[in-house]
Specification:
Elements: E1 21-24, E2 29-30, E3 36-37, E4 39-43, E5 51-55, E6 60-65, H1 71-80, H2 82-91, E7 103-106, E8 109-116, E9 123-127, E10 132-137, H3 143-170, E11 177-180, E12 187-189, E13 195-198, H4 206-221, H5 227-236, H6 240-250
Parallel strand pairs: 4-6, 8-10, 11-13
Antiparallel strand pairs: 1-4, 2-3, 5-6, 7-8, 9-10, 12-13
The structure holds zinc ion.
Zinc ion binds next to α4.
């Protein structure tokens, strides 16, 4: 099926990972227009060779290499493929900052951000059929923060009753529920039942948010991804296959919306 949204092309996401040394070089990859793409060198003990990635979310190039490779070697390696990096960054989906007139997904549908400097009432949504609008009051420089805060509160407001429904259905108790902004996961469940979710789930269709909650709550009972776990999830969210596919195909684009994830 053709992507329904212009931002649904998949960006390449860099992996976070621990135990790695990161270094951003002062001089990046020179562009024809005189600018430079910042280059980050990431040393990884397990790396067997040099790997170059372009990260559209941050507009940077990243070289992953074994610890013994020098800065100069890593830079030369990246420089040789500078053309590929520039082409890739140029054709990649652009970040969608929180700004007046920008279209962002909210509950899986396009919404235009409308700055309303003279209005009162914080943030609210208007829906005129095809395309919704998110109105944000206050000064322009506070718009990104104000909208981000509102989306996080909205995500929480939608996630809490879903957790309530799912825990009741399974007869389990959830611990603390937190919202974070991690690139690596949509949700997680600790061994003590604490649940964590990405606020970006509020950008996805509601059924997808519902599925992720069902998935994490099912982990309170089954701390694994075995057949019994998936049977629990399916009981809670019978459209889970479609939701998982949606996250695989469209999920990474949500990380280009608003502030850059950790
Ligand atoms: Zn899981």
């Amino acid at each position: 099926m053709a992507p329904a949204w212009p931002w649904q092309k998949r960006p390449e996401l860099t992996d976070g990972g621990s135990g790695r040394t990161l270094q951003t070089l002062g001089h990046g990859l020179d562009r024809a227009d005189g600018g430079a793409v910042p280059l980050t060198i990431r040393r990884n003990k397990r790396a067997k060779r040099l790997i170059l990635r372009a990260d559209p979310a941050t507009g940077t190039a990243v070289v992953t290499c074994p610890p013994w490779v020098s800065d100069a070697e890593a830079h030369a390696f990246a420089e040789k493929q500078a053309g590929w990096v520039h082409a890739r960054l140029a054709s990649a989906p652009k970040p969608l900052p929180f700004a007046d007139g920008q279209v962002i997904p909210y509950l899986g549908r396009p919404h235009v951000i409308r700055h309303r400097p003279d209005a009162r009432g914080g943030v609210w949504v208007e829906d005129n059929g095809n395309q919704g609008e998110i109105h944000v009051t206050g000064q322009a420089e506070h718009l990104p923060r104000r909208l981000a805060d509102w989306l996080k509160r909205d995500a929480r407001r939608r996630i809490l009753p879903c957790v309530e429904d799912a825990t009741t259905a399974l007869g389990v108790t959830a611990g603390r529920i937190t919202l974070r902004d991690t690139k690596s996961r949509w949700g997680s469940c600790a061994i003590n039942g604490n649940l964590n979710f990405s606020w970006r789930l509020v950008l996805a269709p509601e059924r997808v948010l519902h599925y992720v909650v069902a998935h994490e709550v099912a982990h309170i009972r089954e701390h694994n991804h075995g057949p019994r776990f998936w049977a629990l999830v399916r009981d809670l969210a019978d459209d889970m296959d479609a939701c998982r596919k949606w996250l695989r195909d469209e999920g990474s684009a949500l990380f280009l919306v608003g502030p850059v994830a950790d």
